Fold this sequence. Notes:
Elements (H helix, E strand, L loop, with lengths): L2 H16 L3 H12 L8 H5 L38 H5 L11 H4 L1 H6 L11 H15 L3 H7 L6 H25 L14 H9 L5 H13 L3 H14 L4 H10 L3 H8 L6 H13 L5 H13 L4 H8 L4 H14 L7 H10 L3 H14 L4 H13 L3 H14 L4 H13 L3 H14 L4 H13 L3 H14 L4 H13 L3 H11 L7 H14 L3 H17 L8 H13 L5 H12 L4 H17 L5
Amino acid sequence: MNASNVEGLRNAVIDTSERGLLAASRWAAEMLAGLSPSLKTPSMRSTPAKRNNAFPIRRPKSPPPPPPEAHFVTPSSPPTDLITLTQLKEGNKPLDSLPSFERAGLAEVASTRTTVLDAPTSDEEKDAYSLARRFFDSRDFGRVVYTLRDYKSAQSRFLSFYSEYLIAEKQALAAFYKRNIAKKHNPGPLNNSLIKLLDAVGQTDDPFLLFLKGLLLYHVSRRAEALECLIRSVNLYPWNWSAWIQLSTCLEDNEEYQGVSKHFPPHVATRIFQIRFMNELHSPGDSELNNVDALLRLFPGSSFLMTQKALDLDFDTAERVYDEIRRRDPFRIDDIDVFSNILYVMEKRTKLSKLAHEFLALDKDRPEVCCLIGNHYSLRADHEKAIKYFRRAVQLDRFCLSAWTLMGHEYIEMKNSQAAIEAYRRAVEVNKKDFRGWYGLGQAYELLNMPNYALYYYQRGTALRPYDLRMWQAMGMCYQELNKPREAISCLKRALLSPDARESTLNLKIAALHDSLQERAEAAAYHRRCVELGITEKRPVAEYVQSCMYVARYNFFHGGGDMKLAKEHLEKVSSSNVEMESGAAAEYLRRLRIMHPELF
């Protein structure tokens, strides 16, 4: 993190704000405020923020030539360095064969080449843009479009096109409200105005117009082309956080991320995005935790990075991190729904109730607050009120993933499978990378006694969470319902690899399946493992008495032949207080004494 990056971040606060990207501007401002004081040089702190040559307001009449080793992808130079729609559909991995960023030159675009932003130059256009910006702030988007209709600078075109997009979104939202919430929502293009707007944007090398083009391409279901535009955008202007968020939306899984990540700029924003994306997949590793710790040394005051770190930690530690975030910024609403999820799982009813009342008074019209209040009622088993607030959250933001998912959970609790399925489908439409929607659909179809459907959704979930115990165990139960014990055994064995595996329970289920297949040796081996776990964990014999008896019977009657092991298990049962089995164990011991007196 050098002085150029710091100044770039400072400029990003203004550049994104000027273009109406308020979320990106706020994010950049918060990151700048959280930056380590040692990275803010005295000259930077003592003088007003000043534009450097990295992102000048005006486009020079004769821009400096690029370095000989760097090149842009321009309209006259087809973007052969990036993925194409055909290649993605065919499942090829064209990016793997491309030259590295160092050779392709796109890294230099982000790190060594000056990115020139095309801003209004004439006083007339500046005045018109200033007026349009005030209209934008008052959400009068139609007047923005009309005011900027005759101006051609990239900045004016962006604000005009972005306003048109927001008008289309407003129309789509109105249509959404008219529909019954239980009806299926069409995830495809909402109206033809987006396609017309996409044609109007056309070819460009402006990073913000590239971001907008990627956004529009995604909404008209041209995902591969959207990826191409967004990758170009973040290389030209890495501090536009809105472009990174949209890029995350376009990426479908970790494999695709690994394929395109080599084409990201060598920039601190890339490292921040990596952490967020892995958290979105619910699969952060040690490298992500180390990465966020390193970034927190650069941005020790960043609540955003602290939140990302909390997502990598166990519940107790995560709670302490969120408490520290609230101590630093008590009015921060972002991610408060995640904090409420943690308190919900930990069953901290009093703390969750206090949090809900505080934020209800602060801002009841934020989706995050509605999710928080919904969790509060859910923990009190008031499912109808919980659903009321989750529904309110999706009315405020129909792309609120947490609200759709939590609403599905509530319908599952109420045994309303059809409503749960619709809620989970909406969650999957919003974010296909989140395993919770797929898992919820599997649960809902299990309630409907449709194991084939449930199995399909569980398989989609395991593709996202390959080490999730619940998913493999649920798949095993589905295969058992379908009378496929072999497949069920494979799934339950796979569940044993999970670090959170309840080994005794899984071993008992696997043993029962082997026994149903008359594979008594395999069943006895898993029962023996249950006994070993019970002894190691010093549990009462009553908890594993059935396994003791199975191992003894196997060796006594079914050819196991290890009479010494049978004797040990029978003695353990007969000396216990388990009435139903201790008598049978004593009888087996009597017979064993007659048949093998040498053991006594």
